[in-house]
Structure prediction request, 429 residues.
Amino acid sequence: MKSPALQYRFDGPEDAPVLILGPSLGTTWHMWDRQVPELAKQWRVFRFDLPGHGGAPAYPAGSVTELAERLLATLDGLGVQRFGYAGCALGGAIGAELALRHPERLASLTLIAASPRFGTADEFRQRGVIVRSNGLDPIARTSPERWFTQGFAAAQPAITEWAVQMVRTTDPGCYIAACEALASFDIHAELGRIGVPTLVLVGSDDQVTGPAEARTLVAGIPDARLAVVPGASHLVPVEQPAAVTDLLVRHFSTAWQQPAYDSSTGQMAVVVPQASPVVAAPQQMSPVAEIAPAVQPEAVLGRPDPYDAGLKVRREVLGDAHVDRALAQADEFSGDFQEFITRYAWGEIWDRPGLDRRSRSCVTLTALVAGGHLDELAFHTRAALRNGLTPVEIKEVLLQAAVYCGVPAANSAFKVAQQVIREETTPQE
Prediction:
């Protein structure tokens, strides 16, 4: 099946090399408005919207790989083969994915407010539960505090309101799918394979993906430099546009001269700098840049047994916190049982392709009601919400169970599920 094209726009000379700017979750291509006039002087600037963002067609994409493939399909349709790429947060993850899977396409890379793994899978799946139950308004109202420093938000009320409205008008299904994409994104072990010249750029006050995550990227990517922009939080291009523009111009003006990907050897030639480079920004910003040695990942060989697949599925369905707790409590007496259910319940049954996870949650809830297993019902209600069931759908499952499993059993189940749903779907102020 052909990947749906992304919504895009070009700025700059038609015969100039192409530079792509990738947006973060909840934003549109307008987050780059302040960079475009300068960048378009020497590049053909290509901006795109994520699915369901900025009025783009709402075709949800549930992985970073799928988003990268849709971007490549769009570029292929336009005849764009080689390009530079700068992306913020989720946009940065897409850039890293391109560098890993399609290195022949990239001339150079900038990762802004990025990380080899964004927070925890639990955090993003919980955000999906909130949106599914309450819509995007709670997320929209709290976006400015995640994206901007307090001083900037207070001094720029128009931009703050623009940010809120940008999130509020995003398609909820596409937002939830993008959360799932971030929940499953983890390239820690692959950083050493990124072979393009890379600038890692981060705001000094970013509380979402801050300098620590940026330094992890620089330590893992062989040819990477770090620029820390003072007085900026997560949406650095919006909060400190002049500093970011200057850094992008400097990086892409020099890194673009690197030799192209060699298809005969499957490698990218990388010029090793003679000394640790310093990336300068405008004097008033004074970003700091540094370079760190790469850490080469060890190859993972062999076919994973059902335990490995089961642990992955168990974490995705029940959450890291729950699984970590269960495994930590296991001792010599109960350890074999934890291994048993991970390998067979989760690795063999939950990982089968015959039913999707929503359907398996419906079956599981019904079985737990029938058996009166209320403790298990509580955490499987949480799992059902994470798997995409809405509170209304869970109610329908319990009503169905009342007919076939008995009213007393369903009465107890409703009390448990009601409490869990209230806890899981109430936005945190």
User: Anything to note?
Assistant: The beta strands are 8-11, 18-22, 44-48, 83-88, 106-112, 198-203, 224-229, 261-262, 267-268, 288-290. The two ends are 42 Å apart (CA to CA). The mean pLDDT is 88. DSSP finds 18 helices and ten strands in the chain.
